[in-house]
Specification:
Layout: E1 9-12, E2 25-27, H1 33-39, H2 43-49, E3 57-61, E4 66-70, E5 81-83, H3 84-92, E6 96-99, E7 103-108, E8 114-118, E9 123-126, E10 129-131, E11 149-160, H4 163-166, H5 168-174, E12 178-183, E13 186-192, E14 198-205, H6 219-229, H7 235-242, E15 248-254, E16 267-269, H8 272-275, H9 283-300, H10 304-333, H11 337-345
Parallel strand pairs: 1-6, 3-12, 10-16
Antiparallel strand pairs: 2-5, 3-4, 7-8, 8-9, 11-14, 11-15, 12-13, 13-14
Helix pairs in contact: 1-9, 9-10
Amino acid sequence: MHRHGHPVTVLERDPAPDARPQGGTLDMHAGMGQVALAKAGLLEEFHALSRREGQAMRILGEDGAVLRDWPAGPDDDRQPEIDRGLLRDLLLGPLDVRWGRGVAEVVPSARDGALVRFADGSEEPYDLVVGADGAWSRVRPAVSAAIPHYTGVTVVETTLDDVDERHPDLARLVGDGSMSAYGADRVLTAQRNSGGRVMVYAQLRGPVDWHTGVDPADPEAVRSCLLAMFHGWDDGLLELLRRGRAYVNRPIHTLPAAHTWTHTPGVTLLGDAAHLMPPLGVGANLAMLEGAELAEAILARPGLDEVVRAYEELMWPRAARWAEFAIAGLRRLVSGAAEAVALFDEFQPSA
């Protein structure tokens, strides 16, 4: 919309672009996220920043045995990886981003548009508010009473820096892209980011309060707890947990797969705000594609409310199909190496 001369305001809760780390890496799919980047005129810049080699993937058992190893070709553009921070900065570019504008609630107008109420007590009216504010969206309650529920799986995240220089054995273990090891109710994933950084994710099937009695701000205590939960695993794999400097607890929540809402003029949703699902590489791509489709529809014809209604009716069934896939996929991934290998074999070239 910015490219076509239509003003768009981005309201961001973070006080500044560098207020916090943006997390790990995302794969942008050729038929989804890359489509949106092309429509925004950013595809060439994306390819310059992304890593084709990041598509490489290796699957291990909890004993460290390699079960599958898929390399990435130098010309493979199916779903190259890009750091979240780089992608965010690329997308924001010249847009009007208002930092430090946390939204408290959105109130649809009785006539048209919606009123945004901010955490500081101020208010502003808008023609259309698009809730792209994630799992715990402050915009969603304006159209839906749905509340995310815990899946029974938690991810504990940590980071390794300068892996090639400081931890060459772990660098070889992870490879050029990602490595995942699977056991019953446990998964250990390590994924390359740019700048020699590796993000490590320990997935645990269990209660949301699995860490009761452990101070989450005490890295030694969290590390000891995790190592106990992965007791018996290959010692080389456990080094990924031992070398972490801090640990972030991330319970995985979802919305119902078929989440919809009564169309409400002046407000709509996209991405995790609309269809929160387990992180199996789809959510960000859907959000990107939905943003592009909504923008193009608004530009193509008059009648804002009719356009938004049509967008929602297109988005809902597609998101439901992907959510069902992701929810079922998460169950399979935490059910052991055999189920994980079978799932990936369905979507990867032969080893």
